[in-house]
Amino acid sequence: MLLVAVNALVGGTLGQERTVLPLLADQVFHLDLYTSALTYIVAFGLAKAGTNYFAGTLSDRYGRKPVLIAGWLIAIPVPLLLIFGPSWEWIVAANVVLGISQGLTWSTTVMMKMDLVGPQRRGLAMGFNEAAGYLGVAGAALATGYIAATSGLRPGPFLLGAVFIALGLGLSVVFVRETHHHAKVEAANHVARHANAGASLSNRQVFTLTSFRDKSLSSVSQAGLVNNLNDGLAWGLFPILFAAAGLSIERIGILAAVYPAVWGAGQLITGGLSDRIGRKWLIVGGMLVQAVALVMVGVGHSFGFWLAAAVLLGAGTSMVYPTLLAAIGDVAHPEWRARSVGIYRLWRDGGFAIGALLSGLLADAFGIPTAVLVVAALTAASGAVVAVRMRGTDYEAGVAAPPR
Fold it and tell me: Mean pLDDT over all residues of the chain?
């Protein structure tokens, strides 16, 4: 539960941007092209994705706690850059730093919970972890929306982020304890069903297994990428779409908060549910629900309709997010599970950058509604890939998968 609280602060550190930065790009820096305005999401996504890859290796080599603390230390300059940045390049730089920090802190809290719980409760643990993180995102998005409406876009909203960073660093240094030894004990007692799926795999072998060769791991990786692709779209373009329709900053803040709030709270249910009914069809269903919600955003014109779409988008994402992480933990051997999680998160958070770039280009060429509808089609197609390619429950509950 301490790690749940820490991850809520990690989410809050990210949530300080969700409502404010798109408006900052539009109203303060007067960026004309959507593609230019979304450069901060591209920077964040690439930085976080790359750091995720190294977080697993670093946590195996040096332990989980030092990596977690390093992530918080790196986050310290982010609010200062966002508050005092005189040009858009400073905002982009802040998001590079934030991406590195998030890659270390969020990845490590995931690994530490996997260390602490057995395979029968892995989905539940991931549900708690991701629920805390995205409720933190939602709470910060809502709070910063109200702060921005009453005191301006800077500096007030980002002072809240500074408080989150201070609390997260303090809790991690003083109270969080190392968990790597739990993974070592699990690895020593782990019996793989196939001899070539054991512990002694190189980083390159783990990468190719997670990304391409193993049907379940690769299906999960592409679904994670597409999930965050549509989240990058929601983060960068939804507030601009809502503002263009004449919604107030307060209402934009509500819509920016409802989506991650439903996403976060829903994971308290869906994480444990995936332990009981399996991962595959929860992932497929969640991707299809997200696709329907995105279509609603693309064709909508009113606050009430968009509010319903935000609820549905959050519900679909909650079905997918903890389940994907739990599926990685099911298949990967405990000895290389942290590396596999890092590689999955490399692909998943690369979706932020791809989504921001793709949706920005489409929005510049055809308008935001068309960009939303194209991403809806990609999301539905991703669910179909999981339905066709991912194995069912044969390899769940901690059984390592054979390379294929």
Answer: 87
